[in-house]
Specification:
Elements: E1 8-9, H1 12-19, H2 30-38, H3 47-60, H4 73-87, H5 92-103, E2 105-106, H6 109-132, H7 136-150
Antiparallel strand pairs: 1-2
Helix pairs in contact: 4-7, 5-6, 6-7
The protein binds zinc ion (ZN).
The site of zinc ion has 5 residues, from loops.
């Protein structure tokens, strides 16, 4: 299960009642993206929530793919966002706080922790592969990326 399947909409019940409908708790579920981020339901939300939803749409749903919002860009960008926060030195708990402030989303810090661990392992595997292929530049690049993720 991808980490983006474990990112949830904060105040889910409250939003559902403002919108007078039900939608999945998972932020990246197709129905949630449709309803919250590409539908015209925004007007029914209070202004704080509207701002967060618009920020989310601007930052993650701004691609022109034909299959938008199901093209996977939003998920990729969100993963990038998580890795950047980690590179800035945020730990799992702080990352959960930041996504709450930025986009009114939440996750369990244990899930964020395993995601970060997994990302480091993936980088390690890629690093080993690059070594075998003796592609030094790429290896250094991955090494730097890993160091950014593990420091902090
Ligand atoms: Zn796209």
């Amino acid at each position: 299960m991808a980490i983006t399947d474990k990112i949830y909409v904060k105040n889910h019940r409250q939003l559902a009642s403002q919108l007078e409908t039900s939608f999945p708790k998972s932020a990246f579920a197709g129905a949630t993206l449709d309803l919250l981020f590409t539908g015209d339901s925004l007007a029914n939300l209070d202004s704080t929530t509207q701002d967060r939803v618009l920020d989310f749409a601007e930052d993650f749903l701004d691609c022109d793919c034909e299959s938008h919002p199901y093209c996977g860009c939003a998920e990729r960008k969100f993963i990038q966002y998580l890795l950047e926060l980690r590179a800035q030195g945020f730990g799992p708990d702080a990352i959960v706080d930041v996504m709450g402030d930025d986009y009114m989303l939440y996750a369990y810090s244990g899930d964020i922790l395993s995601f970060l661990d997994q990302s480091v392992r993936t980088l390690e595997a890629a690093e080993a592969l690059a070594e075998i292929e003796a592609s030094r530049d790429r290896r250094d690049e991955l090494h730097d990326a890993k160091r950014e993720l593990t420091n902090g």
